[in-house]
Give the backbone structure.
Amino acid sequence: MFYSESVIEDATFRFGEFILSDSLTLAGKTSSAGGKARAVEDRELCVRTICVRSLPGRERFKKFNHLCEAILIAFFFLAIFEMPAFAKDENSTVAKVSPQQTSQLIQQLDAAKKADWDAALDPTVSTVRQETFLNQMNKADRASKELSHGFAVPQSEISDALWAPPKHITPEERAKLIQELKQARQEDDHNEQKMLNDLAWSRSAAPANTEQFDERKEQIDSVVKDLEIGTPVHWSVIKQALVVPTSPY
């Protein structure tokens, strides 16, 4: 069993006090000065004996502390060197993709770019839809060039570039989009109400910041209105309105 250095020193001190008290008591019972001197010498001898016997345990404790420090330092440097690699794996989506898979992605992006260009030239699509297709074409072109030059492209950007917007929205699709937008607005209202309830029960005197929720309501209401009256809406605006921000509460 090993004891810490503070425990050993405390035990040594207390035992020394005990020996000193006992020695002085014994010296008080003896009328001669020699008896008192011998009692003090006996106390000092006992204290030195305890300190000497505790040295091996104290040395082992110090060695153990040095070992713990070395282990902590090793883990610290290991974490420093490994963290950039972890961050790279998390942010990069094509780091583990083979050259053949990268080539296939480039071909898919090039095909999507051509399809977007052809759709933009279709005279039956509205001006808003033409802008949407041209925007998608530019996304596919950018992602294809980055992959061709060996750059990592996030999977979200690749999926967005490969997405093919419909040329026209059928009445059924329009009604479905409106329902989804209203559901997103309800989720925003729920998150806002939860934030207000949490602030009401907290001791914070800071005012509630509802600016984000207000902007979301205006955006969704505007998109729903355009869809209901048949006004063309950019697909990027519709997709953005459908994404409900994660609530921090």
